[in-house]
Amino acid sequence: MKVVVLGAGSVGYDTTRQLIEEGKDVVLIEQNGERAKYAASHLDCLVIHDSGNSFAVLQRAGIEDADFFIAVTNSDEVNMVSCALAAQCSKPKKIARVRNMNYGRATFEGAPFLGADYVISPEVEAARQIIRTIDHGALSDVLSFENSSVRVQSFVVEKNSLFAKTTPLKIRMKIEGVFLIIALFRNDDVIIPRGDTQILPGDRLFVATDEKMMHKIFKKMHRNVKPIKRVVVAGAGTIGRLVIDHLLRHKYDVTLIEKNSDASKEMSEKHPDLLVLTGDIRDETMFTDEQLMKQDLFLSTTGNQEINMLTAIYAKIIGIPSVIALVHKANYLTIAQKLKVDATISPKVSSVDAIIKYIRKGHIRAFYSLFDGKAEIIEFGISAGNELIGTKLREIEMPRKSLIISISRAGRDLIPDGSTEIQVADDIIVIALRADVHKIETLFATLL
């Protein structure tokens, strides 16, 4: 598969890196000299230092033979124009990153727009992830799946936790119910655990189960599981506004903190049920004067990720049960949980995952990259003609560091064992290290 990527910013760079690691033939176009130089020295692909809104440049990149064209520069207009230019070639599917909601609206409804077959908005993807996290109690990051009630959540193992200094097998004996410890992250390494794997304090643990069982697990860790009704949102940018719109439609009690008086006035006029406080979220008197510690959830979506982290930590310290912070750097995602931030949302990660899912959409229902791309969780649909139909799981030569998390069949979710047979229309969720993803896809993927 050949892919041409326009833009070597955070989304373009990470998308290119993941595609290269999957063995794709990638050409990257970047107009900025420093970015182009950095990409050329760190990525194993052809980097063209030029503008992408020229058909001649696209031809140099091999657009006529490409399967996909991905335009992810910081300019909506450049992305859309380059997709229109690429549309002169019949072969490539075209993906455009946009921030202007007016550009994206037609495509979000499923219609191609200005040559783009699919439009991705980092803000929309991040808002969806935040809403999903809130809907599931905001106890941690939440990974959900298209045709399964199973979800994956993570938490850092504390020193005195019942998960510390024990094994998955012993934990299953302590907590009654069906759940699976699918991965742990330790010292920048990904471990797909076995029954006798030792779990240590400081490990970030990923658990797969249904909502009821997940709440039971969090209760065992003395974590708050009460319904969220009152929410404080810091920041009235695009992401904050999208989340506020959703929360108000679903009858949450929402307070907005925004330092820009014009934005505060606009939000107050648009939403009569929204309590709007004009001020700087960094001012700790804002929390005390407005009694914000009585809220159920604090969500920081300002444009400054450091402020988001610090205010979320402070909100946790003063007694707000659940906090969510919007971040951009991958290393912040791991640091945040160690600092008691319940969930971190990255527009970059959400966008890259959405792009990769679209590229693979023929056979993949859901896709998540973990640990800065070191591992993936993939939901496959098994269609007629798949060679594994009728095969017992014990007979499948799975990569050693991979795990079948669950099988959804006829509305039921199964935690499978070696005797489970694969059937037509099964939905299978698998976790694997990046190096083994191609083999996993070869095993389970049949184009729909």
Can you characterise this structure?
With 448 residues, the chain is an alpha/beta fold. The chain has 3 domains: 2-120, Rossmann fold (3-Layer(aba) Sandwich); 127-133 and 226-349, NAD(P)-binding Rossmann-like Domain (Rossmann fold); 356-444, Regulator of K+ conductance, C-terminal domain (Alpha-Beta Plaits, 2-Layer Sandwich), CATH 3.30.70.1450. Helices cover 33% and strands 26% of the residues. The protein has 15 helices and 22 strands. The strands form 4 sheets. A 6-stranded parallel sheet has the order 3-2-1-4-5-6, with helices on both faces. Strand 5, helix 5 and strand 6 form a beta-alpha-beta unit. The chain is globular. The chain starts with a strand and ends with a helix. Mean pLDDT is 89; it is low at 106-111.
Shape assignment? globular
Q: Classify the secondary structure makeup into a structural class.
A: alpha/beta
What number of structural domains do the residues give?
Answer: 3
Oligomeric category: single chain
The number of helices is 15
- Write down the CATH class of the largest domain: Alpha Beta
CATH homology-level superfamily of the largest domain: NAD(P)-binding Rossmann-like Domain
Main sheet specs: 6 strands, parallel
Helix content: 25-40%
| Counted beta strands | 22
Strand content: 25-35%
- Low-confidence segments, given as residue ranges, are 106-111
The CATH topology label of the largest domain is Rossmann fold
Corresponding CATH architecture of the largest domain: 3-Layer(aba) Sandwich
Overall mean confidence score, pLDDT = 89
Radius of gyration: 23 Å
What spatial order of strands do you see in the largest sheet? Answer: 3-2-1-4-5-6
Distance between the termini: 18 Å
